[in-house]
């Protein structure tokens, strides 16, 4: 197995490492990552190191504290990274020595103490225990559960991991449009399938449906009830329902609630394919035969799928004709020729997708924090562009299907600060609270003001040689200077805002949708209003 050189200036060591090597070696690295299960371990290590509020709340930390002993390691005194467990390029003997040293410097704490200091310390994951998978999750063959079972000091992630390891319930929304008769469908569902699928309790319009916990019905098991499957497929084809995840519905619901998406409005969907939000917004703006949606995507092929989705939606022609398709890089989307800016902009940026892992099995095996660190730049550019294209008094909804703060609050905070720092006072924007009377009873978490920024030390070639259970490690750096000094390719906006800025940013107005709260995927939403 030939060794490949590591590029220390890489922000995504895994992908950058692939750039510098031949095809055969790329394949080997990919294969190693997929087969080794490294992604699962790195994902757990990364999220377990995050402060409360990111994916686990105070009760989760306390719950873990009551039942276990954990080990934590203090970050080095100059706030640099926790040293990687095994150094790349070291001899085996040196690696063993380093491991031993790391163990002796590990501070053992009772979980109660560890709970109170968990936000200040970074767990070290080389203490393997015999802890078992969460009792409520029966699928012990799930690789995430298997990885979690080996992590004594990650117990505060138990409810998060349990939710992620179970299939995503089936969800859809009943469409409102002039031509489809949905009352009959609602009646059939209520009469024949109420044990399988019901309207969610927090939606007063009773148009959002989710399969019941007791049925365990998901996309992959729908075929076990052939008549229900047929009903759902035909309702999707004739435009009566839209298969969409609950998290994905939030941006348009919010923009509608603040009266930015209304019949006749002019909307821009900057990153639109495959089109769930375009279609959801279209159902509102096209009412009355007016209104327009510009549906944009940088990938021509994906734009074609979006066109297909719109034409297959079952929506009437006088709705679908209200969509205009464009093919720009959203970060340089041109201003409208008319000079009239947009009433509402949906900014559902490309993301690492780690909120979608309940349905997408391809994300976790390849997971590294570098993917989020790298996407952050583009996400910020796209959001900044959206904030210049919305009219004064209009709204932008920024969203991702990732719970990584680097892709969420870090982008939001940077955009807010850049607008303030622009000089000339040309624009003013603020974050808007999620409206209290929208989906009341739906559990939502506030945005966080603190998080850790991690970088992956890829050691796959060493690991392939050793052939056993070590997956490289994540180093956390307290600030950009330290990360730069350590050779990371980085960017100052990845880090949490200075404490003096926290009050003015109102990051708590963002919405984090944790999978364990409403049995959904993970999702993040921030609503901006342009004031000037
Ligand atoms: C999260 S998906 C959007 C999902 C979509 N909003 C929906 O609800 O169905 C992100 C989309 O952004 C597109 N994209 C990636 N980079 C882009 C860029 N620079 N400009 C515009 N679109 C981009 C991708 O092709 C992808 O279709």
Automatic annotation (TrEMBL):
GO biological process, one term: methylation
Biased composition (Basic residues): 93-103
Binding site for S-adenosyl-L-methionine: 297, 329, 348
Segments for region (Disordered): 1-20, 75-107
InterPro entries named in the record: MeTrfase_RsmB-F_NOP2_cat, MeTrfase_RsmB-F_NOP2_dom, RCMT, SAM-dependent_MTases_sf
GO molecular function per UniProt: methyltransferase activity; RNA binding
Catalytic residue positions: 401 (nucleophile)
Pfam families: Methyltr_RsmB-F
SUPFAM superfamilies the UniProt entry points to: S-adenosyl-L-methionine-dependent methyltransferases (SSF53335)
Coiled-coil boundaries: none
Keyword S-adenosyl-L-methionine assigned: yes
UniProt domain SAM-dependent MTase RsmB/NOP-type: residue ranges: 160-531
Swiss-Prot/TrEMBL keywords: Methyltransferase, RNA-binding, S-adenosyl-L-methionine, Transferase
Nucleotide-binding keyword on record: no
Family per similarity comment: Belongs to the class I-like SAM-binding methyltransferase superfamily. RsmB/NOP family.
Name assigned to this protein: SAM-dependent MTase RsmB/NOP-type domain-containing protein
């Amino acid at each position: 197995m030939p060794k490949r050189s590591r590029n220390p200036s890489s922000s995504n060591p895994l992908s950058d490492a692939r750039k510098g090597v031949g095809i055969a070696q790329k394949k080997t690295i990919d294969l190693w990552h997929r087969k080794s299960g490294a992604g699962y371990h790195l994902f757990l290590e990364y999220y377990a190191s995050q402060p409360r509020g990111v994916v686990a709340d105070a009760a989760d930390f306390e719950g873990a504290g009551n039942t276990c002993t954990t080990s934590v390691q203090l970050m080095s005194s100059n706030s640099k990274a926790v040293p990687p467990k095994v150094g790349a390029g070291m001899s085996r003997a040196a690696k063993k020595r380093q491991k031993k040293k790391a163990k002796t410097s590990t501070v053992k704490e009772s979980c109660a103490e560890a709970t109170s200091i968990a936000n200040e310390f970074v767990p070290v994951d080389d203490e393997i225990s015999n802890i078992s998978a969460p009792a409520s999750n029966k699928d012990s063959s799930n690789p995430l559960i298997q990885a979690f079972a080996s992590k004594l000091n990650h117990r505060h992630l138990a409810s998060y991991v349990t939710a992620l390891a179970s299939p995503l319930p089936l969800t859809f929304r009943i469409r409102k449009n002039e031509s489809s008769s949905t009352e009959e469908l609602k009646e059939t569902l209520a009469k024949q399938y109420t044990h399988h699928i019901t309207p969610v309790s927090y939606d007063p319009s009773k148009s959002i449906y989710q399969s019941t916990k007791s049925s365990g019905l998901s996309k992959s098991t729908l075929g076990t009830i052939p008549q229900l499957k047929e009903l759902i497929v035909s309702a999707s084809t004739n435009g009566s329902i839209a298969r969409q995840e609950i998290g994905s519905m939030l941006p348009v619901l919010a923009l509608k609630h603040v009266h930015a998406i209304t019949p006749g409005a002019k909307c821009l969907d900057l990153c639109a394919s495959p089109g769930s939000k375009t279609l959801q917004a279209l159902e509102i703006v096209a009412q009355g035969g007016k209104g327009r949606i510009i549906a944009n995507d940088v990938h021509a092929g994906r734009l074609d799928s979006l066109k297909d989705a719109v034409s297959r939606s079952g929506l009437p022609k006088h709705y679908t004709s209200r969509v205009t398709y464009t093919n720009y890089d959203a970060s340089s989307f041109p201003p409208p020729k008319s000079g009239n800016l947009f009433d509402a902009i949906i900014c559902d940026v490309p993301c690492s997708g780690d909120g979608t892992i309940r349905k997408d099995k391809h994300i976790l095996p390849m997971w590294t924090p570098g993917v989020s660190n790298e996407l952050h730049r583009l996400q910020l550019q796209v959001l900044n562009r959206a904030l210049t294209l919305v009219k004064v008094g209009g709204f932008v909804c920024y969203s991702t299907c990732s719970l990584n703060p680097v892709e969420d609050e870090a982008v939001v905070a940077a955009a807010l600060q850049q607008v303030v720092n622009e000089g000339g006072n040309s624009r003013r924007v603020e974050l808007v609270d999620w409206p209290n009377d929208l989906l009341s009873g739906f559990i939502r978490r506030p945005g966080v003001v603190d998080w850790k920024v991690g970088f992956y030390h890829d050691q796959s070639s060493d690991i392939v040689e050793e052939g056993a259970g070590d997956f490289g490690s994540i180093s956390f750096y307290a600030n950009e200077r330290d990360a730069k000094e350590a050779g990371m390719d980085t960017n100052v906006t990845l880090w949490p805002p200075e404490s003096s800025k926290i009050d003015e940013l109102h990051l708590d107005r963002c919405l984090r949708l944790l999978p364990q709260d409403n049995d959904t995927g993970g999702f993040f939403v921030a609503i901006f209003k342009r004031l000037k």
